[in-house]
Amino acid sequence: MAAEELPSEFDVVILGTGLAESVVAAAFSRVGQRVLHLDRRSYYAANWASFTFNSLLTWIQQHHEEPQPEELHDWSSLLEEGEELIYLSNTDSTSVRNLQVFCFTSEEGEEAEAQSPDAPNTTEEVSAGDAVKETSETESADSKYEETNQKPEEEEEEEQASQTEGEEPEADQPTPTAAQSQSEPTKKKISYAQLVKEGRRFNIDLVSKLLYSRGSLVDLLIKSNVSRYAEFKNVTRILTYRHGQVEQVPCSRADVFASRQLSVVEKRKLMRYLTSCVEETEEQRAYNGRPYLEFLCDQQLGNNLQHFLLHSIAMVTEDTPTEEGLASTRHFLRCLGRYGNTPFLFPVYGLGEIPQCFCRMCAVFGGIYCLRHSVTCLLVEKETNRCKAVIDSRGQRISCSHFVVEDGFVGADRKRLATPTRFLSRAVLITDGSILPSNSDQQVSMITVPPVAAGCPTVKMVELCPSTMTCMPGTHLVHLTCQSVGSAFEDLSPVVTRMFRTPQSHDQEKNPSVLWCLYFNMADGSEVKGHDLPSNVFVTFGPDGALSHEHAVSQAELIFKKILPEEDFCPPAPNPEDIIYDGENTSTGGEEEQSLQTEE
Amino acid sequence: MAIRELKVCLLGDTGVGKSSIVCRFVQDHFDHHISPTIGASFLTKTVPSGNELHKFLIWDTAGQERFHSLAPMYYRGSAAAVIVYDITKLDSFQTLKRWVKELKEHGPEDIVVAIAGNKNDLGDIREVPMKEAKEFADSIAAIFIETSARNAVNVEELFQKISKQIPPLENPEVESNDSFKLTRQPAPSYRRCC
Ligand SMILES: Cc1cc2nc3c(=O)[nH]c(=O)nc-3n(C[C@H](O)[C@H](O)[C@H](O)COP(=O)(O)OP(=O)(O)OC[C@H]3O[C@@H](n4cnc5c(N)ncnc54)[C@H](O)[C@@H]3O)c2cc1C
Ligand SMILES: Nc1nc2c(ncn2[C@@H]2O[C@H](COP(=O)(O)OP(=O)(O)O)[C@@H](O)[C@H]2O)c(=O)[nH]1
Ligand SMILES: [Mg+2]
């Protein structure tokens, strides 16, 4: 099919389909601006994307390939009098790094225990440190399955292991199957082949966040009517990890009273504390600037409550100042009960849906979408230092009044690099059960994990069940996130080993097994950097480490307000059913509103 | 009678008449200059089917098909997909296979697929023989019909055929029912202040 030409004139050209860019696109299109929205990738949502299992494997592989040497086409022939070119970067290889993949389940569905009681099942311990060394970046791409041909040095050893066990060998870890099948002979583990076969049932997010029920993203979704394109589930429980145990954090009144972990005195104290902290008091102000932990200590709440309040409700660290701790506690409390028992929502099919919903809104109002299509350079009018046009990857000149671009596409020469880039550490696990089994097997859990040792980061963990449409039946999908100290593996594998069953963990019979996992680092988008770019070029930053989406939404609103200070930001889209004849002559708009409420 | 909501999405190259088919079906109207946007992006029509009422929630592409950039969210939860080609444009029939592949990749597994050869009022400049199209549809177990949005030919029938193929309602699953849309007014509040 002949590639159709793009129109050559727009008000706003946007490169990158992450959340901030997509909200910007919807906002402009909605008020009548002509928007061209491009992404060089073949999928939506950039570093906010979610992938089926198989497309995640492709993504992993892409991040292992050497970035193609940039072939700089000289577009100076397209320059007009008084113009100059600014080239954009055409590889975004810097935002994701340190990918490591581990598969702890057998490749095929066969019963491994039948054949391998004497397999070379070394009991030798391999420390996490060794594992890091042995899984260098090149070899961790699960090369066996993806045929990247990048055979690591230990190739022979690995192949041997895989022959005997049919396992994905990883840095000569003791092979797990035999031991596990002995302890649990009845339960058949889901094999790698099954994960691949059912791969489309997974929607694995690159970011792990939640929506606060009264946060700015929920407000924006509702205000703009973009909410009609997505469905949500409540996060059903808040958990925390303490003394080697996963415990449920009581957060609603009912939870507090039903809690079996809390004594009657604690229940009373907790209720009193939560009621009192809603209002700001003199006493609280006296602690401004001092750690929230100190304030909590002085409330004589006891260790249990202090832990819950600090780590799971305020979700702050021990040195967070009191005013900040109280502010997040209040936000948490305000968000309770709007839709469910916890403050949080999660989109069905994963977070990657949200940018797509905003893109659809943009398209409905005339925005033009083109994936696998990029901008190679900007045409700048020297005198005014304004970007007049862009040149796309096909060499077409497209004029625009404003250009919005994701940070990853801005060339290094344009960045005023002050500090080295900060990273987030991420892990994604496919497990065979919930971290805290309960009478319902369809729980969506937010788990806070305080530092496992001094100097370790606080880890946020989200466990998703199959009914969120993010993983296949019989599995759970677990996302771990923290600010990186070392590589994602170094930061997060100690937590994984403790809380789940892997070949490295010991005496964790009752914990769910990890079938497959991925570690990677992603640039922290909260680190806003300066750029030397024309005044009508706006840069957006990728996902940050916070649980909420405030950062992306506020970036988008800021850009919109700078360009169109008079216009409304994402006003409600008319409900088509309000204006258009419906088969039964009734406007179903109202009915829709009613029927869409959460059924509790 | 119980009303069942069925999401239907439209696929096919730009210009084959997707929006026109929706417009004909829902509003019994044909307009040569249909606005590609708001109007057709989400329309509904309810039709009886057996002892149920089927309320079709019809999603149009909003133009995102033009550069093959439909988002996977477009296919989510669809009960049926109508893939449209233009019988006067061989190209549009040839890309049908790509749309089928795209649907297999991103659409729900049990989706009902219908192939509609549109503009059959222009038989004198036909480029796609009906037989060939029918054979292709059979090979992927899809419904096949030739339509004319312009002359209101077979548009109702297209949706009737889809209705018939929709499997009867299974036991409403408890689990799949507890997802919800966000609405302006908060859910009935049983506010638990603690
Ligand atoms: C109706 C339709 C038409 C499409 N047309 C194109 C298109 O013209 N160009 C395009 O890049 N993507 C096109 N796509 C998108 C394409 O199908 C894939 O979604 C995308 O290219 C990624 O493909 P893949 O990695 O799954 O590889 P595959 O779909 O297996 O394709 C392999 C490679 O061949 C290229 N390719 C396949 N078919 C064509 C074609 N007809 N013309 C040119 N290149 C082709 C793809 O870009 C890809 O790099 C089209 C999609 C649909 C639904
Ligand atoms: N002759 C004829 N023209 C049609 C028919 N359906 C649509 N068209 C015309 O084809 C063009 C594209 O239609 P449209 O519905 O916008 O296609 P879409 O891009 O697939 O949504 C318009 O000019 C329509 O008037 C039809 O059945 N017969
Ligand atoms: Mg259309």
From TrEMBL, chain A:
Main location: cytoplasm
Recorded GO MF terms: GDP-dissociation inhibitor activity; GTPase activator activity
GO biological process, one term: intracellular protein transport
Keyword Cytoplasm included in the entry's annotation: yes
Limits of the RAE1/2 domain: 424-544
Keywords: Cytoplasm, GTPase activation
Disordered: region residues: 107-188, 571-600
Transmembrane intervals: none
Signal peptide (UniProt feature, chain positions): none
Domain of life: Eukaryota
InterPro entries per UniProt: FAD/NAD-bd_sf, GDP_dissociation_inhibitor, Rab_escort, RAE1_2_domI_C
Subcellular localization, as worded in the UniProt entry: Cytoplasm, Cytosol
Segments of skewed composition (Acidic residues): 153-171, 590-600
Feature: compositional bias, Basic and acidic residues: 131-152
Alphabetical list of Pfam families matching this protein: GDI, RAE1_2_domI_C
GO cellular component, one term: cytosol
Residue spans of biased composition, Polar residues class: 174-184
Family: Belongs to the Rab GDI family.
Described purpose of this protein according to its UniProt entry: Substrate-binding subunit (component A) of the Rab geranylgeranyltransferase (GGTase) complex. Binds unprenylated Rab proteins and presents the substrate peptide to the catalytic component B. The component A is thought to be regenerated by transferring its prenylated Rab back to the donor membrane.
Protein name: Rab proteins geranylgeranyltransferase component A
Automatic annotation (TrEMBL), chain B:
Gene Ontology MF term list: GTP binding; GTPase activity
Membrane topology: Lipid-anchor
Keywords: Cytoplasmic vesicle, Endosome, GTP-binding, Lipoprotein, Membrane, Nucleotide-binding, Prenylation
Compartments, as annotated in UniProt: Cytoplasmic vesicle, Phagosome membrane; Early endosome
Pfam families: Ras
InterPro entries (alphabetical): P-loop_NTPase (IPR027417), Small_GTP-bd (IPR005225), Small_GTPase (IPR001806)
PROSITE patterns: RAB (PS51419), RAS (PS51421)
CDD domains from the UniProt entry: Rab5_related
Bilayer-spanning residue ranges: none
SUPFAM superfamilies documented for this protein: P-loop containing nucleoside triphosphate hydrolases (SSF52540)
Recorded family membership: Belongs to the small GTPase superfamily. Rab family.
Protein name: Ras-related protein Rab-31
Organism: Zoarces viviparus (Viviparous eelpout)
